[in-house]
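This section describes the prediction task in plain terms. A model, or a person checking by hand, is given the sequence of a single protein chain and must write out its three-dimensional structure as a string of tokens. No templates, partner chains or ligands are provided. The sample shown here is typical of the held-out split.
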Amino acid sequence: MNRLLHTIIFIAILHICSCGSKSDVLTPAPDTKKSPVLNSMLLNGAAFGTTMLNTTTRPTIRLSFSQPINPSSLAAVILTDNNGSPVAINSIASKGDSVITVTTQSKLANLSKYTFTISTTLQSASGKGLQNAISSSFVTQLDSSRKFPVLSDNALLDTVQQRTLRYFWDFAHPVSGLIREGSKHDPDLVTSGGSGFGVMALLAGASRGFISRSDVLVRLQKMIGFLKNTAQTFHGAYPHWLNGSTGSVIPFSANDNGADIVETAYLIEGLVCARQYFNGAASAETNLRADINTIIDRVEWNWFRQNGQNVLYWHWSPDKGWQMNVAIQGWNECLISYVLAAASKNYSIPKTAYDDGWARGGAIKNGKTFYNIVLPLGEDYGGPLFFEHYSFLGINPNGLSDAYANYQQQTKNHTLINYSYCKTNPKNYFGYSDSVWGLTASDIKGGYTASSPNNDLGFIAPTAAIASLPYTPDESMGALKFFYYVLGNQLFKNFGFTDAFSLDVLKNNAAWFSDSYLAIDQGPIIVMIENYRSGLLWKLFMSDPEVRAGLTKLGFTGF
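The expected answer:
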């Protein structure tokens, strides 16, 4: 009995002494859960890492993992569009659930940026999540299919001119017949300079038979009657903007509420062409010419020398005076102002105003080389292309020279520099090419700017390349065909080409196309196409005796 008791006590002591020893702690079972590791990610068979370009609109993404994936966690695989909205996809597992193939349920939009994401909620079959989220993006390709039937070059130019003419014929102000500033502006807001471009556009339309000569005459009688008798003027000059119903000035800015001599020059440029075009002996045409003469002859060009200085000033206001104080000095779009001021019968300016003011005593010259092309005049790289359009809707640069430049070389070389800049694309904007080029003033996304190589925000204006047809026919026709055939479903609308576009999906996330039109961009398209085809507006303007006298006075030769 004592022996049994001793044994029990001994066992109890051993048990007490063994408590808390390592040998008594239970070892936990090993963790068999493993995080999935992405071995490869392929987009249409190519490694998918940084942003990929020119992706098909029905892409396939193949994911290969280190171990099987839990199919119930595939909601972690997400595709979103440029607005961040989810895109419907199918995610199919294969090869023992270690390979996931992702496809879209429907075709994606062309020229759009998409982001592909795998979140950390993706789990392996063993139940452990992805350690780090994965994200990459791709840009879908341009739809390069032809949107319209292929036409001969002449038929294509007819189509573009005729459609663009609608802006000046159908969209003109119903009371005055003057040209509205833009399709997004107040419908009563008309532009004096754009109306001058519109007159030239109507003459091109009549010459082509798009509108009858008699109908254009009636329209011009309305426009010119309003300009002569109703529209507000200041020392004979018109404001930039007018009310198309009342003729009263609409301020362009707080201090720009009076005369704009540059916009007036564009208007007179068109009226000179009309005076030369309607040269018949019938009373309707003789009366039209008489009214045009009244308008032209009363512009006090020399008033805008601001007290006799050897330079023209852009603005004058009846209550602000010369507060804008913008001297018109070259090189820019304003050459026409000096030519017409020198040509004036009653208020002419001296040649010294041209030499000292416009040409800045010769400082107008450039002479540097850009892209192996010499630029005779102006700022480096030439500035926006409207510099070579607005004055040269009427002035024929071919063979024209003065003390400062050969203007055939100036207009061509400036355009080629603009073309070469876009083709070279130093800012790497997606979409720029030898078919997508042309920087000038236009609407852009969220505003308006004068685009140029020195102010390039990634927006192309069709007017820039198309209105350069007389200077760079091959390069401009290539751009026109791309704009029409490839982008035409989004770019060629009721009044012709809309104002601007961007294909730069990398910076904008999606292609952008303006839905607006501006008179000063539509006008050069139809007019310069006509100058390319027949030289019509050049012939009209350059045949005017007063214009020729003005050019001679300023020292021009070769016209």
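For orientation: The domain at 153-554 is CATH 1.50.10.140 (Glycosyltransferase).
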